[in-house]
Structure formats: structure tokens, C-alpha cells
């Protein structure tokens, strides 16, 4: 029985590693397409878009709302336009809001090739969100929090203009980054 449990665990680990590798490859292809079709990047001014929904770009049958970057950790990821809990293992997903009104919340996974750096991100680290019109919005991490829940009332924060979150696979807590617009 013990051998079967060990074999089952090894099989689960191999399947997870395969899924992570496939997600990395898919995301690399999506990023390649985004870079080809996005207009030249320019500074985004939230007031210009205040009453607008974030436009989506359809790639391979999926809608994307943004390109998210954390330069200090070499993270560049497409952000899916719709929240699907199972999809966060593939790529970050927009949980709520827009960059235009300072309410954007993005959830992802703490796996390699995605947000595995969240437990090491310091206050002040730069996070950039580029919408599908090429408008680039720059933020700084203001604080890092932990929570046992990722309910909307926990994630919504009037002081943060961008919130990113992941579930820590080890502690099973959520790591929440609260970001503010960079000066």
C-alpha cells in the first residue's frame, strides 16, 4: 500500500510538472502574439479611460485584458480577461475591476513561471500593467499581506490601486500584494 501511495504521489508530481511546463509554453506563445499586435507602448493616464472597460484581445479562443510585468523578478505574463478558478494555474486572471479606475485585482498561482516570487517581493518593487491598447500603467508594491481567505471583501482595498494575489501552496494562505500608482 505504501508503494502505491508513493507511486501515486510521483505520478501526481509528474503531471503537475508537465502542466506547469505546458502553461509556460502557452504563455510564451501568447506573449509573442501580444507583442506582435499591441500598439507601441505609451504611458497610460487613468483619467483618459476612467469610464471605459478594459478592452480584450482574443488569442487562441481566449480573451486577454493585460500584460503584467514584475521586472525585478523577470516576470512577464498575459492576464486572462475572465476569472476562472481552474485557469489561474495556467496564467493570471482578472478577478475584478480595471486599471482605469484603480480597482484591478488579478489572481494567479505561486508556481514556477508565474507568481512564485510573491513571498520575496519587497515593498517598493515595480509592477507594470499594459492594457490591450498599449497604455502602460506603473505601480509600486505598497504592502504585502497574508490572509486565510481570498473573498472579495478581503481583496477589495480602497487604498490599493492594484491588488495581486496567490495561494501559497505551503502555508495554504493567500499572499496579497497591494500596489499604488508609481509617481
Q: Give the helix proportion (percent range).
A: 10-25%
Mean pLDDT: 85
What is the number of independent domains? 1
Strand-residue fraction?
25-35%
Shape label = globular
What's the CATH C level? Mainly Beta
**Radius of gyration from CA coordinates:** 17 Å
- Weakly predicted, low-confidence segments: none
Characterise the protein shown here.
By secondary structure, the chain is α+β, with helices and mostly antiparallel strands. The protein has a single domain, classed as Sortase, Chain: A (Beta Barrel). Helices cover 24% and strands 34% of the residues. It is built from 3 helices and 10 strands. Strands 1, 2, 3, 4, 5, 6, 7, 8, 9 and 10 form a 10-stranded mixed sheet that branches. A hairpin with a 6-residue loop joins β9 and β10. The model has no long low-confidence stretch (mean pLDDT 85).
Note the main attributes of this structure.
alpha+beta, 183 residues, 3 helices, ten-stranded mixed sheet, Sortase, Chain: A
Amino acid at each position: 500500500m505504501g508503494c502505491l501511495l508513493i507511486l501515486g504521489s510521483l505520478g501526481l508530481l509528474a503531471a503537475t510538472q508537465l502542466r506547469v511546463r505546458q502553461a509556460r509554453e502557452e504563455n510564451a506563445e501568447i506573449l509573442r502574439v501580444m507583442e506582435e499586435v499591441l500598439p507601441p507602448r505609451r504611458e497610460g493616464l487613468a483619467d483618459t479611460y476612467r469610464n471605459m472597460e478594459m478592452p480584450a484581445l482574443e488569442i487562441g479562443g481566449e480573451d486577454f485584458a493585460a500584460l503584467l510585468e514584475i521586472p525585478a523578478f523577470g516576470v512577464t505574463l498575459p492576464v486572462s480577461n475572465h476569472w476562472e478558478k481552474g485557469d489561474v494555474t495556467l496564467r493570471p486572471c482578472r478577478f475584478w475591476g480595471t486599471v482605469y479606475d484603480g480597482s484591478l485585482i488579478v489572481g494567479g498561482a505561486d508556481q514556477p513561471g508565474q507568481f512564485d516570487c510573491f513571498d520575496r517581493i519587497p515593498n517598493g518593487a515595480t509592477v507594470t500593467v499594459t492594457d490591450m491598447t498599449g497604455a502602460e500603467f506603473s505601480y509600486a508594491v505598497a504592502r504585502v499581506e497574508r490572509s486565510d481567505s481570498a473573498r472579495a471583501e478581503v481583496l477589495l482595498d480602497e487604498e490599493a490601486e492594484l491588488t495581486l494575489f496567490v495561494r501559497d501552496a505551503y502555508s495554504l494562505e493567500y499572499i496579497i500584494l497591494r500596489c499604488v500608482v508609481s509617481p
